[in-house]
Amino acid sequence: MALLITAGEPAGIGPDIVLGALGAMADKAAHLVIADAALLQQRAQQLGIDARFNVLELFDHSSQLAGDAINVLQVDLYAPCRAGELNAANSRYVLDTLDIAIRLCAQGAAQALVTAPVHKGIINAAGYDFSGHTEYLAAPSHSKPVMMLATKSLRVALATTHLPLRDVADAITTPLLIDVLTTLHDFLQQRCGIARPHILVCGLNPHAGEDGHLGREEIDIIHPALAALRDKGLQLSGPLPADTLFTQHHLPTADAVLAMYHDQGLPVLKYSGFGEAVNVTLGLPFVRTSVDHGTALELAASGKAADSSLRAAMQLAARLLDGDTR
Q1: Domain boundary residue, one of 275, 301, 316
Q2: Phi–psi pair at 120, nearest 5 degrees
Q3: What separation in angstroms does the CA of 261 have from each of 147, 165, 230, 255, 265?
Q4: Among residues 294, 163, 240, which one has the least CA distance to residue 172?
Q5: pLDDT, tens digit, for every residue of 13-61?
Q6: What is the CATH number of the domain that holds 161?
């Protein structure tokens, strides 16, 4: 069963880190890159990487992958690509690679997808409504995705993802939190092999609302969600003030943290493990992991881009398929 890899924004470091991560593998037969092979060949030359490619026009259950070459499912660029220079014409190419990956997973030809970074701004500039991988990958299956980043010692999931800060409070509802926490709990049980996960839940407001003096979201929205789920047997602590939750007083007993919004939880996680953290999408019908960084256009074709996060994402995807990441 192939592990799919999309190479992301062609002008960014996606091709670089894919080449670096796969080039170091002795046996490449379990990995299939969805990309333009000519782009990868060009970038390999720019980086001075001696890489062999096995290019496929089609892929299904019966396809054979080479062990001694980088396997590439061909997807054509829409315009020539220069490292570091965005071109809106190639936004459709980026989405094509994702659409093919979604289809292959839906058909059962693959069970896991690892994604290199895309550039949301240029995709939107090309006229596509794209808020990120998480939402795009969930749309075909009408899934309710949950975004989580993980290091070796910390998992942080998000109640809301890519929203302007002024919209966050209105987006957080009791039903939303019940759905997100249920998805997170099920993931920890089913994919991570944790029999009874313990989840720490952040409050939304400073000091978790100060008993309503700094906002009532904890009282009116978060507490009812936690109470309903505790009645079902979930082990939840909170809502806790975010500024003290991420300390050794709380974290050693936790299997995961639920933050209310993107920049509440992720700065702490990235500080503790940037470059080796992995982005995981929960709630999809297939395993999906990704890197913890962006396209880094200024580093494309320079040889300075680290592939450590992509390697970690590939390793975690394989472990998640096995059902034990402890």
Answers
A1: 275
A2: -60, -35
A3: 10, 8, 22, 19, 7
A4: 163
A5: 999 999 999 998 999 999 999 999 999 999 999 999 999 999 999 998 8
A6: 3.40.718.10
